[in-house]
Here is the input.
Amino acid sequence: MNKIGFNLLPWSAGVSPSVFPLLDRLKEIGYDGIEALIGSPDEAEYKALANHAAGLGLEITGVFVLGADDNPISPDASVRQRGVDKIKWAIDRAHDLQAKIICGPFHSAHGSFSRAAPTEQEYQWSAEVLRQVGDHAKQADIVLTLEAVNRFETYLANTMDQLATLVELTAHPHVKAMYDTHHANIEEKSIAGPITRISPHLAHVHISENDRGTPGRGLVRWEEVFKALKDAKYEGWYTIESFSRADPDFANAINVWREYSDPWEIAEEGYSFIRNMLDKA
Here is the structure.
């Protein structure tokens, strides 16, 4: 049975008690869970958020990124090791959140480019790191769901075919894949084919409009998306991921320079939209 989630990033990149009222209202709308960025250094905040969510009957998934200083595909072995350590730290924080999934493009550094196409060696380095952290994720009963991200944000995995190749190279039961409609809208040539390609590894889905605004108000071909996911027998989360400038430091870091839609419009209309599309599919 699919569940519907909402990523907190339109309001905050943090996990402090200041976000608790957001969870209260998202629960009222009907959401099954929330998604939180794993980034805060305050470990106690993760457990507090988990307790508040559990009290509401909400589940949590995590999202996580790496930077140039802990890049899993760096030629420098010490940098790759920092990537291993940082992902293990994120797994521990996800365990504090009582989360079962961490998603994101942590197969490589976000926003860091070699100014060349990805190499076989880089895929091998990434797979080596992912196998190591996969063992740590297994101990925590967490699945790592890697994200293919558009060419302007990363270069190792832009498409479902590249992502499937990396997951297959890693060959670890706790290293899976996710599908994000925003990135796919930029990088893929079709909808059904890439979803079919990734379907053996698919463990998470982000619902995100082409402009990162309210789902259903943009250019994504939603009926095809939901039909393809149903045909693939996908039974995981449908989590809305959108952004705003409410948290300026985070917005500046990910190149969000304008408002796309009001966050509560995204949350309220987005929930109804997903529920509708699932019924249609």
Q: What stands out?
A: The chain is about 45% helix and 15% strand. The mean pLDDT is 97.
